[in-house]
Structure to design on (524 residues):
């Protein structure tokens, strides 16, 4: 699939590449709602779709979930799909399935060609991270190792440590989303991202959340975040801006940066 | 004049105020060109105009310059005017007048009601800073003490020291414009601005220049810069973005920030 690996490519892009990728979350609770969401969002031309499968009621029934995923995949065409089960402790939905069942679902989804990326939380058990890594490698797709803190922003050093932990876990991309309690916190996240981009080989996806954090969703790519989540139809986290606004700001930033664009 | 003191007011504005003020520079070399520039810019509704009088060929002939300023003032109506002679060492034009003549011009302009603010460089001789302060106080207008570095970005501590120096000089507003050599430098300026806003009573005008620095012209207000220079007709410094782009980004930022807007 030509769309695959686009985040890694974007992470390495320099000098007028396609950065930042804009990703819209899909939070439909049923197959029908999910596909309706894709149909509503695709005309807005997101670069990537994220299927937040913890919102999907059928998450505990693997064949049903995989079938919905295949339908999504077919509809999405060349647009890459990230498959993400976000746990409750990192801001996700309560689901009628345990971590082992999710691991099995990830494996089945990878084998069925449902997605181009898997998102696995860094806080998950090592055996689950390993299963996700193996399933993604076997399917030739990418692994995103993620970390979320909806309460606060850890110190820059701790954020940087999440990037290196993701790399050590064999991930292709590191994702960190944290909540600022001040504008200082917003700068801490941006600073850590800049350091990570300079010192690490893997692409990063970072954001500060909430109203203040919305700034990073718009200009974070300049400092090294390869992808920004924007609202296509529904928001999946606080501070996400509408895809149209993100595109508008990105175009203006790109014009202002000129040849200095990352 | 009701427009007076708007920068100070903006500096104190919180919760959906009129921040950031958008200021367009005027760089006409003749009276005619200057007034033509004002006519072209006013429909774009800048919040403030800056007359860069170092571009004005008649700067050495005080009555002529004051007369042009009065015509400008009449045209500008309620839009506040900053009167600025930028020296060569801080990025300005070569002028056929010495610092004493400029001080006398400032005094005449203040007395004639030409401007709402005077811009005096922190690097000027103490006696000239004092004359500008006295002239502005006598006329009931504001004084901006400014610092520019077109070569580099000093450390955050040094930037903060410029703010306190402006305050110590009796200025109503501190302005600092510096050139980044890296994205780190951009963050240094933003960080220092945030600290200055938190710790000092006077409003700040800050910007990082050039392509990277254009970011601060767009989102710097969130971190405490009360005013941003934008291109109405002509640019007066590197990295200035068109007024239309600035307005567009500001509207989106304000919407995203919601109640968290400074």
């Amino acid at each position: 699939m030509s769309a695959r690996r686009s985040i890694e490519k974007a992470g390495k892009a320099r000098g007028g590449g396609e950065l930042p990728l804009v990703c819209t979350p899909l939070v439909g609770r049923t197959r029908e709602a999910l596909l309706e969401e894709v149909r509503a969002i695709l005309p807005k031309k997101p670069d990537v779709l994220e299927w937040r499968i913890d919102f999907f009621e059928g998450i505990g029934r693997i064949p049903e979930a995989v079938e919905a995923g295949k339908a999504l995949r077919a509809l999405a065409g060349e647009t890459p799909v990230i498959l993400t089960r976000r746990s409750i402790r990192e801001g996700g939905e309560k689901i009628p399935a345990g971590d082992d069942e999710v691991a099995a679902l990830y494996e089945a989804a990878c084998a069925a060609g449902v997605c181009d990326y898997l998102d696995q939380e860094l806080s998950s058990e090592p055996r689950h991270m390993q299963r996700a890594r193996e399933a993604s490698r076997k399917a030739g797709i990418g692994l995103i190792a993620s970390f979320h803190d909806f309460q606060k922003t850890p110190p820059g050093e701790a954020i940087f440590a999440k990037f290196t932990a993701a790399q050590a876990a064999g991930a292709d991309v590191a994702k960190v989303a944290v909540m600022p309690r001040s504008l200082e916190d917003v700068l801490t996240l941006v600073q850590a991202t800049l350091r990570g981009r300079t010192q690490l080989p893997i692409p990063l996806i970072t954001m500060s959340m909430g109203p203040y954090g919305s700034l990073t969703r718009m200009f974070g790519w300049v400092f090294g975040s390869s992808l920004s989540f924007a609202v296509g139809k529904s928001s999946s986290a606080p501070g996400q801006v509408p895809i149209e606004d993100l595109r508008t700001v990105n175009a203006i930033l790109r014009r202002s940066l000129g040849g200095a664009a990352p």
Q: What stands out?
A: Confidence is low (pLDDT under 50) at residues 11-17 of chain B. The interface with chain A takes residues 183-184, 187, 190-191, 194, 210-212, 214-215, 217-219, 222-223, 239, 241, 245, 248-249, 252-253, 255-260 of chain B (CB under 8 Å). The longest strand of chain B covers residues 142-149.
